């Protein structure tokens, strides 16, 4: 998390130098606001992770460092916020049924839009994952992820064939421009069961987590099977800038979808949960998705979104476009 924060602050500093030389643009300001907002969110996440530290001296020392850094980032946010009042999620359109490719944000490249729309069978994948491991494919998604090139500007496509993959997958900060393609919702399934009750912080409960910029996923199901009695149990966590999730199912109970930070776009996805099941501090749009509120445990109430903005100058928020909210299948009572 600290390395990610350093990277985001370094990117912001590069744009700031252009800004002081009068070589900046509206998009540049929005980039800086995004990176500074994400850096501040990282500090909040680190602070939450200290809650379980028993050594009070260590906790107090770290809290002090985090507080000082957060104040500096917050001041920088305030400076940049006055340069632009355009908080429009940077080019995400509302709705356009006549031209399907234009339904994605403007920062999605034409080549990536074609990959999002093309049949899976017609796409030449760089790596293939299958349960049988035949024909040179990988049996585990994590094994394929290890082969992803670092800091690549080229799109790396990983095709995950139909099957149930019981593993926790992490796409790191340096694994950029990675795309996962499955065989469809309910066919290609990645499932885990990490939870707060199992002594994981909420951040580390995710079945599937992505931090590398340019992350794309389509036609998959990401699931956390820990159950409602396990409290926080994330299925999908994303902190990748310019990420897209298309035609996926994200299933869990409490804290199902963790939209941690940066710019994210979800389209035609199903999200199942009970308490705060879409939460985080990203600039995120969910468009033409279906939200399924599962039956909560006794004395619980369904809460769909829990936006985590702490600073008024962060360019973050959860925007929901044109999607129904349903009573989901799956009681929280287990026999």
UniProtKB/TrEMBL annotation:
<feature type="region of interest" description="Disordered">
    <location>
        <begin position="302"/>
        <end position="321"/>
    </location>
</feature>
<dbReference type="InterPro" id="IPR006501">
    <property type="entry name" value="Pectinesterase_inhib_dom"/>
</dbReference>
<feature type="domain" description="Pectinesterase catalytic">
    <location>
        <begin position="126"/>
        <end position="326"/>
    </location>
</feature>
<dbReference type="Pfam" id="PF01095">
    <property type="entry name" value="Pectinesterase"/>
</dbReference>
<protein>
    <recommendedName>
        <fullName>Pectinesterase</fullName>
        <ecNumber>3.1.1.11</ecNumber>
    </recommendedName>
</protein>
<keyword id="KW-0378">Hydrolase</keyword>
<comment type="similarity">
    <text>In the C-terminal section; belongs to the pectinesterase family.</text>
</comment>
<dbReference type="GO" id="GO:0042545">
    <property type="term" value="P:cell wall modification"/>
</dbReference>
<comment type="pathway">
    <text>Glycan metabolism; pectin degradation; 2-dehydro-3-deoxy-D-gluconate from pectin: step 1/5.</text>
</comment>
<dbReference type="GO" id="GO:0004857">
    <property type="term" value="F:enzyme inhibitor activity"/>
</dbReference>
<dbReference type="InterPro" id="IPR012334">
    <property type="entry name" value="Pectin_lyas_fold"/>
</dbReference>
<dbReference type="GO" id="GO:0030599">
    <property type="term" value="F:pectinesterase activity"/>
</dbReference>
<dbReference type="InterPro" id="IPR011050">
    <property type="entry name" value="Pectin_lyase_fold/virulence"/>
</dbReference>
<dbReference type="Pfam" id="PF04043">
    <property type="entry name" value="PMEI"/>
</dbReference>
<feature type="active site">
    <location>
        <position position="276"/>
    </location>
</feature>
<dbReference type="InterPro" id="IPR000070">
    <property type="entry name" value="Pectinesterase_cat"/>
</dbReference>
<dbReference type="GO" id="GO:0045490">
    <property type="term" value="P:pectin catabolic process"/>
</dbReference>
<comment type="similarity">
    <text>In the N-terminal section; belongs to the PMEI family.</text>
</comment>
<keyword id="KW-0063">Aspartyl esterase</keyword>
<dbReference type="InterPro" id="IPR035513">
    <property type="entry name" value="Invertase/methylesterase_inhib"/>
</dbReference>
<dbReference type="InterPro" id="IPR033131">
    <property type="entry name" value="Pectinesterase_Asp_AS"/>
</dbReference>
<feature type="domain" description="Pectinesterase inhibitor">
    <location>
        <begin position="28"/>
        <end position="79"/>
    </location>
</feature>
